[in-house]
Design a protein that fits this description.
Layout lengths: L6 E5 L7 H12 L7 E4 L6 E5 L2 E3 L9 E9 L11 H12 L9 E9 L4 E6 L8 E4 L3 E4 L2 H8 L7 H10 L14 E2 L4 E5 L6 E4 L15 H20 L6 E4 L4 H14 L6 E5 L13 H10 L3 E5 L6 H11 L8 H14 L4 E3 L4 H4 L4 H13 L3 H10 L1 H4 L3 H11 L3 H8 L9 H5 L16 H11 L2 H15 L3 E3 L5 H9 L2 H4 L8 H6 L6 H4 L11 H7 L1 H10 L8 H8 L7 H23 L5
Parallel strand pairs: 13-14, 13-16, 14-15, 16-17
Antiparallel strand pairs: 1-3, 1-9, 2-3, 4-5, 5-6, 6-7, 7-11, 8-9, 8-10, 11-12
């Protein structure tokens, strides 16, 4: 099967292709792509440029005038929702007409490589939300691709872990959302950015848009009109995402409003008679209690949309193999065992003949779905001395946060000051099981940023959620899991048309004065999804029996701890104390389980890719 990812390399004039790169080209390009999906250019300025992608456009013409586009993903029209039949050509035409300004205007989920012989230059671009990864390395030439491990092997770089990114993984469970990756010398192009490389200069990372030119529209829209427009844009994006293979579409359904909204829009776009399949992961042992078990919500939403509902679960006995498989598929260690649910869901969907899976990622970041958005609103109210309104918003958000008012108030003050970032930079906080001294000796930088700095505090939270926090990691994990099984993971909420509209909306449309999150989305979908889904407060996602799996696999877990001596920063005594919390039926038990899973998944990644530490 042809790869759905981009691979490529540049070699400077007069230089010999390094042996590692030559072998990589032979193994990963010549054998994995048909000839029509590979473009090769040799010019006096460039010794050699190779681009391999599912779609190639523009090979004809002289080398000094040639514009070649390698493309993966999809594009669609925001007017009628029609999918572009030849997206590589569409991107090439837009680029020839508008230059790099076209990148921010394209709707869809994509990444692309553009060789422009007129300058000459090489451009690597990601869509506005960064739904498709792109990595690069400058070692033994310039190599780039959709897989960080493929780029690592092509460059000939050793697999050495980057200390700051390693700390970030252990502390937060995320590996994406930063220019530097967990592999030293391997870099990621952020979402809504592009890379420019010329023969005379080093790579430059540039934004595709100016976030401070976003104007909040306080007078044009009433909230009901805005909800209608948002629903239309989401519906158009879903329609486009499903239009190339209606029978091959599945929906990842978690039971929350985000994924239920995608399922409802798919039903509306395809009509009442079309066959629709939804896939949900459940805890087969029924070890989860409400509100964490969303099975009733899943089933209600599937029934409401008249969809075939496939319930998926994994026995504990399948987990060791799933851990090994995941460690080889993913570029970086995953921070949660939820990845096993996603992979099994993709596997079952592929067995059913599905080639596209629609997910509900996005609203938590772009439509005011996080506590950080609530805190930003409260901070602005406090700054205007509207203290009663600020407390009312906090009080109303308790059900969404799942914590008490006093703790919520303390968190809101802490989160909206610069003190946490200052303290984190000065002294990284310890993580259970971590020898913090190992990291302190290496002077790590534990702070991260999105690459964008917005004047508006609420927009800044949105940008951080979109480009820096958990979302980029989730998108990367699902893209890799799907690609390994021939299933294209698509995020309709993260089309440029939806994001651009959401960023212009007043903050009170996103978070109400009663602390209701995703207010605009709830109004937009109120007649399309069950009322119980609209009223749902806590965010859960797929219900993973993280504790049950660990207890059922006690001997295997013990073997993992014995092997963790490979990690020079591991503190076994601290983890032993943490394991004692697993028997408790409270939040501490869940917290302990996810921390332990994170260490196990890190160990397996290290073994799978031969990672070392310096």
């Amino acid at each position: 099967m042809q790869s759905a990812r981009i691979l490529g390399a540049c070699v400077v004039p007069g230089g010999q292709i390094p042996s590692a790169l030559s072998a990589w080209i032979s193994r990963n390009i010549s054998r994995s792509y048909p000839e029509q999906s590979v473009a090769r250019v040799a010019t006096p300025q460039w010794g050699c440029v190779i681009v391999a992608a599912p779609q190639i456009s523009g090979e004809d013409g002289d080398c000094d005038k040639k514009v070649i586009v390698g493309f993966t993903g999809y594009l669609f029209s925001t007017i009628d929702g029609k999918l572009a039949n030849r997206p590589a050509e569409k991107l090439r035409d837009a680029y020839l007409r508008d230059g790099v300004a076209c990148f921010a205007c394209l709707a869809g989920n994509f990444s692309a490589a553009i060789y422009d012989g007129r300058f000459p230059r090489l451009l690597l671009v990601r869509d506005i939300a960064g739904t498709r990864p792109l990595y690069y390395a400058c070692h033994g030439g310039f190599t780039f691709g959709s897989s960080a491990t493929a780029v690592l092997r092509a460059s000939g770089l050793p697999a050495i872990a980057h200390e700051s990114m390693l700390y970030r993984y252990l502390a937060d469970g995320v590996c994406q959302g930063n220019h530097q990756t967990l592999f030293k010398g391997i870099y990621s192009i952020p979402g809504s950015h592009y890379l420019e490389l010329t023969p005379e200069s080093s790579p430059k990372i540039l934004p595709t848009r100016d976030v401070n030119r976003v104007e909040i529209e306080n007078t044009r829209w009433g909230i009901d009109e805005a909800a209608d427009e948002l629903r239309t844009r989401i519906l158009t994006s879903v329609k486009a995402s499903a239009s190339d293979n209606v029978d091959g579409i599945g929906v990842a359904l978690s039971g929350g409003i985000d994924s239920c909204g995608i399922l409802a829009c798919l039903r509306r776009s395809l009509g009442g008679e079309a066959r629709i399949s939804a896939y949900s992961f459940i805890d087969g042992g029924n070890s989860l209690s409400p509100p964490f078990d969303e099975r009733l919500g899943m089933e209600a939403s599937a029934s409401h949309a008249n969809a075939e509902h496939h319930l998926i679960h994994l026995d504990a006995s399948a987990i060791p193999r799933a851990v090994s498989l995941t460690s080889h598929i993913q570029d970086f260690p995953v921070g949660s065992p939820v990845v096993f649910a996603h992979h099994e869901m993709f596997r079952v969907a592929a067995a059913h003949g599905k080639s596209v899976m629609l997910n509900g990622h996005g609203p938590d970041a772009i439509l005011g779905g996080s506590l950080a958005h609530v805190f930003a609103c409260v901070s602005q109210l406090r700054a205007r001395l509207r203290l009663v309104a600020a407390m009312r918003t906090l009080r109303g958000s308790r059900d969404y946060a799942g914590i008490g008012l006093l703790r919520l108030a303390a968190q809101s003050v802490w989160a909206t000051t610069r003190l946490p970032r200052i303290l984190k930079r000065a002294q990284p906080a310890p993580v259970p099981g971590m020898q913090i001294g190992w990291f302190a000796e290496r002077s790590i930088d534990a702070t991260q940023n999105s690459g964008f700095v917005a004047d508006d505090p609420f927009l800044q939270v949105t940008l951080r959620q979109l480009y820096n926090d958990a979302l980029p990691t989730a998108l990367s994990i699902e893209e890799a899991s799907g690609a390994a099984l021939g299933v294209d993971s698509r995020a309709p909420y993260l089309a440029s048309s939806v994001i651009a509209f959401a960023e212009r909306m007043p903050h009170e449309f996103m978070v109400s004065d009663q602390g209701e999150t995703k207010r605009l989305l709830r109004i937009a979908l109120r007649d399309w999804v069950p009322s119980s889904t609209i009223e749902q407060r806590l965010r859960v996602g797929f219900p993973i029996p993280a504790i049950g799996w660990m207890l059922d696999l006690a001997p295997w877990v013990e073997e993992q701890f014995c092997e963790m001596r490979l990690l020079p920063f591991f503190d076994g005594a601290a983890i032993t104390r943490l394991r004692a919390d697993l028997g408790r039926q409270d939040k501490n038990a869940w917290r302990a389980a996810f921390v332990i899973w994170r260490w196990i998944l890190l160990l397996q990644w290290v073994k799978a890719h031969g990672v070392t530490f310096r």
